[in-house]
Predict the 3D structure of the following.
Amino acid sequence: MTEFAIEVPPVVALPIAGMDARFPVRRVYCIGRNYAAHAVEMGHDPDREPPFFFQKNPDNLDPSGQFPYPPHSSDVHHEAEIAVMLKSGGTNISPDRALDHVFGYALSLDMTRRDLQGAQKKMGRPWEIGKAFERSAPVGPIHTVASVGHPDSGSITLKVNGELRQEGDLNQMIWKVPEMIAYLSEYFELAPGDVILSGTPSGVGPVERGDRMDLAVEGLGAMTVSVV
Ligand code: MN
């Protein structure tokens, strides 16, 4: 048995709807600009160019329903997304086999320090400081493929304090879930516990402490996250 020289960090373990067992997280990949209307609102061309990804940290995923407003930003944005949880992986996965690797799906938010991300973009620097901060990815319970199948269409909405801010349809994704898995597997070795955040529709915008965010996706239920 391995002895550890320091305290062993906890495994990030997410709740699964209808199961006592939890889902252990290995890596978190996030796709950028995956809905045309969001690409346009961020000042980019909506044409299908190769996808690009950034990463968050496993322990950025937070099922608590609370989002602590992070330091060093005055422009923290919500991005409503669905997360794809993998039960297996590999390299060079073909798109037509990609969904075999999916364990389930969950509602998620890719919270973003937009001011810091914008400054990094201008300087051509990496985005972590804007994206991969503490508890930056609120996540709902995971719905297994056995219970919800593979949702590839249906409305995705985000309300802030009851007011509709984001509205789209999962069928508007430029890169579909099987394509994202296939593409990532050409560049990385995917494995059980990997999570992919699949991009956000248009309507991203700022939140403040005290706000209530309500995310709903057809077929995946709803979740409420409070900004504290
Ligand atoms: Mn995003």
